[in-house]
Amino acid sequence: MGKSGYKWLTVAIRLCYNMMVFFGQHRHQIDAKNRFRIPSKYRGKFGDTIYLMLSTNCIYVLDDIGLEKRLATLSEVDIVDDSNLIELKSKIGSNTFDVADDGQGRFVLPDKLIKGAKINKNIVSVGAINWLEIWAEEQWEEFDKSRELKTMLAEATVKQ
Fold this sequence. Notes:
alpha+beta; Chemotaxis protein chec; two-stranded antiparallel sheet; 8 strands; 44% helix; 23% strand
C-alpha cells in the first residue's frame, strides 16, 4: 500500500473508532526557528501535516478529522444574513495554518500564531481530551490557577 493509501486507511480507522485522545501536560520550548516537537506519546496520532488554529488563549493542534469537526458547524450555517458569522469565518480561516513535518518531527509555528498566543520560548502542550493545545507557559500557569477543577466540574454538571 502506498503512502497515500496508508494515510486514508488511518483516517478511516480513526473515523470509525475515534482514537484521538490527549491527556496530560508536557513542557518544552520552541527553538530559534520557531519549531516545536509534538510530545512523543502523541506523534503517532498525527500524520505528516497538522493544522494549527489560534484560539482565545492557545493554539489548537488538529489532524484532518479534528479540523473537519471544528469547521463543520460553521460550514453548515447560512451566513447570507449574518455579518458576525462572515467575520468569524474570516478570522478562523486567517488564523488556521497547515504545517508540514520538517522530516525530523518538528513543526514550525507561524509568527502570527506565536504573537496571538503570546508565546516567548517556553510552551506547554496540554491534552484537552479530543485535541492537543499549545500554550505559552505563562498563559497556561495563569489559566490553570484561575479556577479549580472541582468548581468547573460542578458548574458543568449543573448545566446538564
